[in-house]
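REQUEST
  id: r-88c1
  op: predict_structure
  target: DNA 3'-5' helicase
  payload:
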Amino acid sequence: MASDSDSDSDSDSGSYVSATPPRPSHHPSPTPPPLNSSVRVSSRPKPKPRPKPESTKKSTRNAPHHSEQTKRSKEKLRSSKAQNSTVSNPKPESESEAQSKPKSDPGSEGLFLSDPDNISIRICKPESSNSSSNFSSSFARLVKLRRPSFDPDLEFKADTTVPIEAQISAQNQVNSKQTKRFHPNLIQVEAPISKPFDQSKRPKLHDQGNFVRLNINGYGRSRKPCFRNGSRKYSASRGFRRRKWNSKKSNNGDQEDDLLGLDGIVDKQQGKSRLVKEVEEAVGAVREDLSEENLRNLLKLSHGFDLFREGQLQAIKNVIMGESTMLVLPTGGGKSLCYQLSALILPGVTLVVSPLLALMVDQLKKLPAVLPGALLSSNQTNEESLEILERLRSGEIKVLFVSPERFLNSEFLSAFDDDLTTSLVVIDEAHCISEWSHNFRPSYLRLRASLLRNKLNVKCILAMTATATSETLENIMKSLEISPNNLIQTSLIRENLQLSVSSSENRLKDLLVLLKTYPFGDMKSIIVYCKFQAETDMISKLLCDNYVKAKSYHSGLPAKERSHVQELFCANRIRVVVATVAFGMGLDKSDVQGVIHYSLPESLEEYIQETGRAGRDGRLSHCHLFVDTTTYYKIRSLSYSDGVDEYAISKLLGQIFSSDINLTGEIHSLVKEATARKLDIKEEALFTVLTMLEIGDEQYLQLLPQLNVTCLLSFHKTSPDLLADKDILIRSILNLSEKKGGFYVFDIPTVANTLHIQANEVLDQLKNLKISDEITYELKDQAYCFKLLKRPDDLFALSARLTKWLSQVEVCKVQKLDTMYKIVNFALRECKQECGCSASLHTYCIQKHITEYFSNKQMTIGDDFNIAGKQHSPFLHADLKSFLKSNASVKLTPRALARIMHGIPSPTFPSSTWARNYFWGRYVETDFQVVMEAARIELMNFIKKGTEEN
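RESPONSE
  id: r-88c1
  status: 200
  body:
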């Protein structure tokens, strides 16, 4: 905040002539009236003297000596006063008016003049030498702010007792020779009136302290504002004016500012050093005595918190004692603090496995300053990754964030040798390990205790999640070899959340009404969750058209735009974010007041996670859900999109275990897009099958990092034959490549197998040749790579087991959606409105069923609550026959035919091609299993009929 000395008050003792009241800065300064005998002079009582500031040391600076020109001006004024001695006294003022007038120094006599605009002018005598003590205080700041109002001929005697002020005074004498501008509210006696000072060029004063705003928009002179962290940045021209004004303002006193800035930096560095030292002492105390008092002291120093939340203290103690732990805390319950504080205490490295890059970046930013961290991602170059691993070995990094796919990288695993101590592995979002969870990820399946302990020499594992059923927790702890005694679980129910449900036939209209009525109408931060990306864009536009500040957020947006939307929301620049499930993980905003589910969540776990983003500050918050039957049927239909037929699994296994593939440790690959289109299996399902072949009861293969396996190579400086004589890699490429369109096209795993090297070594050599301008190349066809270890004895039995397992995962996913729909429908139709439940508010009813669900208790909804959809349709078989007849040349399976009838796209039957078909999505409200069974019957009849005709 600017001090009083920074203001433009005209009652300052340094202004010996001033006008009152001051004119507004945005009006040009009028020319002052001439000082002649026609001016009416009035006298007024002397104001009360201003108390002198207390000072323990008198200034040695003498009062300024006025020039002859100033003396002549005073004689003129005395003469004018004598000629106008007959003027009557002014009208007495009230006490309040007298207090509002600016005060002058003791002993000053004032003459009050009147101009044609009826503006009073007070002319004061210069101060006597007795007030030199007041005048010399804060001289450097006075010179800097009031320099334009001083007479250029005034001379000041330097104060030799204060070296810094002497330098400033000497600099002032040099600058005083330059042309000066005068403030419009200050009158220079018998001096030429210069152009009024443009007050609009002054920067605005704020109470946030001094800061610098940079123009990093790159839009030239455009005045497009850009918000970042609550601050506003302007165009380059505005920034230039600010810099120009600041440079003029700081001509004098810059040495003093530099000195103060240097002192500030030194103080900051010393403060940080003291903090590091205090944290090290606290860590040593915890290692000696693992008491709650020592842990709380370390928590206060490193994170600034006084107390632990429920479950945190016990989890930290378990980890420090080397006991693997399963931690279940609600969303926003402080899971990250458990591994951060443990990483400070434990020696060696803490490895954090996280499913999303955005989540890793957010967690890395939140690490305390005393805890160095880094992350490895696929966006980094090979050199950057190697540099991070080198820093890891040297001990510069304590916490490393990685994705689960990183464990396929041999270079990464080799970094964790005997010399590198890995004290703790943290698995965030650990429910992804279980195939029975709501968010199963195949890459998490590989995170078994055997891999972590054998490859990384891990001593302790901390698994963390916010939502997991009892069955899911048992599966996780079995995979990670965590004792049931080390399960730490708190209540998933947030007491400060009000849960409401309503049935809607026009959700857009109801959403607008909800956002403009109590309680959502008074909220400043709201998240609206949708299922589809197109929905988020459409709804956000509709809200903006109805004067609701909103932005959309989904994975289809560029990363920079997603980050910008999140920053605007966290800074309260926008009121509503309309988002898919991609928004919210790692969101650091505790004052979200409301969550609205525009679409039905796919599971209770998802519902708990998303509603848990409201009310993290402990205040009452509201969560509303719109129930729409049509949307439920559509989401339920899409739940079958990942399913695989046994026929497709058999063909995939036949391709993997082909007789052409040997077991000598060679690298083999499956191109993602081509294989998915050929077998009509989604890429995620392909990776799931490969993962199960590696970590199942028997290990049939070893997965390798994914890479682009097809290379298009062209030569530039040296001819291919001459280069092949000097380089064995080029010789192998020429022998194994096919020339197409001027490029040498070859398969990277095939070349690597021929030279008995790894695929990444081939890429490194190609990169070196490209740097030397010998070649250029292009990589394409991303593929899953693996080494075959053994062949199955019975390929058909293995195919049947995999198909059954995938079907169970699919059924589990559909059942979770059905349970979610049953609970909200029960609240709408069957709730007896007890314990606070009302027409739409059903907090008690929903929370009761949530508790039953996560504890695997029998839910009180009842099995007769049938919502699975229509079990039959009189026109289904006829439509299937008609479709098969009109598409006789298309190779179809029962699942593919059922997907078309449900409007579910697949690699072989994309919506871009088949959505124009009359039967696309015609039976979305009929149960998928019913449609698939009917498709199987009609397909067999169609094939049988065609065989008989032939």
